[in-house]
TrEMBL record:
Name of a matching Pfam family: Bac_globin
Top-level lineage group: Bacteria
Keywords, in A-Z order: Heme, Iron, Metal-binding, Transport
The protein's name in its UniProt record: Globin
Amino acid sequence: MNLKITDGELGVRPPVAKPHPGFFHEVGEERFRKLVHDHYDSIKTSDIAFLFPVFDDEDFAEAQKHAADFLIEISGGPDYFTQTRGDHQMVGRHAPFRIDEKARRVWLKLYQPLLMELEDEGISPEYIESFWNYLDIFSKWVINTKS
Ligand code: HEM
């Protein structure tokens, strides 16, 4: 399985394809939520923890839920994010946080072991890769700070 991080750069926003709907379909909502939950949990002890509301359990749980809602929606599941948060506006929603290429790489790296777990659980590697490609490319869009 190829989970390679490609180079991102401030101001460069390559076209992005949504994950293959087969990914959400195979993983199922419950396991999908656990994936995003696990990612946020690993953020807590990472070098990018300072960007997130790690000292407020309620705010952190909210952030975790919004991220899962969004990723489920973009992966072809129910439109939970739009229903509760409105327009996606992902670039604008990340604007208050200083995100550089280094932070993006840390964020992405934390997904790698979690996606390998899914492969061990029998999820099709090509579906996992399609989700990964979405994360790899779209995360370039939220870079707003020079490294
Ligand atoms: C594919 C890439 C990404 C997606 C789809 C994504 C998605 C989201 C979503 C849906 C939210 C919640 C927005 C809201 O409801 O207001 C969010 C918040 C946030 N994201 Fe991302 N994100 C991505 C990449 C990143 C990266 C690379 C970083 C930093 C390294 C980052 C840092 C944050 C921070 C700090 C918040 C705010 C947390 C809070 O205080 O509520 N995101 N992201």
